[in-house]
Amino acid sequence: MFRNSGIISLPRPLERRVDTLAQSFMHQRLGSQMDFSTPEGEPALLPPNSVTWRIFKNPVALFIGGVTAVLLELAEPRVRDAIWQHSTFRSLALRRLQRTGLAALVTVYGPRSKAKAMI
User: Fold this and answer.
1) pLDDT tens sequence across 20-71
2) How many domains does the chain have?
3) Which residues constitute the domain of residue 54?
4) In this structure, is residue 109 part of a structural domain?
5) In percent, how much of the chain has pLDDT > 70?
6) What is the DSSP string of the chain?
7) Which of 36, 88, 89, 114 is exposed most, by the fewest CB atoms within 10 A?
């Protein structure tokens, strides 16, 4: 699914495990498998050699960036209030985080038409 080409790479067995978990997650959410390394039928919004692809393929960078983004969102009172009052984050935090992760993956790696629909 993902080929780790970043500076920090995972040991091969761990990389395969992460790929398997991501495939399982995508299958549960999308109802079918989606190969993010080669979008079916049409190219992704960004090419495979883009900075975005390289960052998203690096689990360490993605984790640090994701946590940072959430903290920055929650630091702004108006954004925090909007999330708290107008989303399912309070009652379904894990599901909301999964949907956000899926949206990010589809936007970067998915076929252009699915990415645009997700956006």
Assistant:
1) 766 665 565 555 556 655 666 788 888 888 888 888 877 777 778 877 888 8
2) 1
3) 12-118
4) yes
5) 73
6) -----SSS---HHHHHHHHHHHHHHHHHHHSS---TTS-SSS--SS-TTSHHHHHHT-HHHHHHHHHHHHHHHHHSHHHHHHHHHHSSTTT-HHHHHHHHHHHHHHHHHS-HHHHHHH-
7) 88
